Model the fold of this input.
Amino acid sequence: MAGPIVADGAVVLHDKTIAAVGPFRELEAEFAGAAVEDHDGCVLMPGLINAHIHLELSNLAHLSQGNPAESFTDWLTEMLSEREALGVTGPHVEEAALDVLQVQHDSGVLALADIGNTGVARKLVGVFPGLLFPFLEYLGLTRGSLVPALKKLGKADDHIACTAHAPYSTHPELIRALKKRADQLGFLFPIHVAEPVSENSMLTSGTGEMADFLRKRGFYEDTFSWAGIDIEGSVQYLHSLGVLDEKTLCVHAIHVSESEITLLKESGAKICLCPGSNRFLQVGTAPVAAYLRQGILPALGTDSAASNPEVSMWREMQLLAEDHPEIDPYEILRMATAGGAAALGIEAEYGTLDPGRSSHFLAVPVASDLQKEQEVCAALVHRGSSTKPQWVSG
Ligand SMILES: [Zn+2]
Done:
């Protein structure tokens, strides 16, 4: 994922790291006497990085099996009421989360960034053979909810990474406090950004579907007019709050203008795209080509089973390729590997097969008649959730 594909290549493993990568014939001579494991008919590639999931919503998979809700806020309403009816925590939630996590591992996912309001994912950290980064999510838009939220945050254990839900659901002072804490403790700061188009109209003019939804629930109190900010959209809003930097992960980032993409690039902020969830919720498609044009390699995430009929990183690649046929499949593979590793800050060890990086990676079977680099990449990207990789460990 850092250079051209090597035909009939080899990866030399030593002491849990990659020692060398290159053509088999050359490495065979250089490392004479090394034990050889043959993965005939397979592509050797880095493990996948799922940069956005909510494991604690796994028991709500039935919400994404039927027809999608009429609107984003209808889905939110349905999800919240179903969650309350079935119980936010408990064995049924934990078992469903564990099942999804197991499938993630079996399908070649090496690392995940999980967002939750409970401790469900934290309990699974020791169970998952890869890397699971759980984030405890805060939200609350009203002034009344701000003081208790800040108090709760002040008492949070330093080893727990805390984050904000979204601009539409989280008071600006709470977003700032969460980002400040994340910086002080060295944590990543993931936040949903510009997922429904109505977040933009709410932030810029206090109108639209989201503003109406929150007013109806008693959560909207013109928070944004008193903030006195003249903004174009969600990204500019977060920039004005001073929370965009290289440790901020903007999830979804669909309704983002060209000048906001420049802001993201300048700030070094990371992007995570979730094509499967976006398609199910019909919230639009992200400006992927514009991100790549400005030199941003996004990460990919599945989001939760409650908004995605299949929680599969392979399917995310397939859907992204369908939505954006102009994008080179190799770039899509890089998003799911190198892009994800950079987004989670683990690129020194993961995301590419390079000397010095982890010796834990994938062997993915592909049809033996594929010759050209382009054909191999396209085959990997378009096969979706039927892909059956095997783990390789040195
Ligand atoms: Zn999400």
Notes: The first strand starts at residue 9 and ends at 14. The chain has a mean pLDDT of 94. The longest helix spans residues 91-106. Residues 52, 54, 115, 192, 251, 303 surround zinc ion (CB under 6 Å).
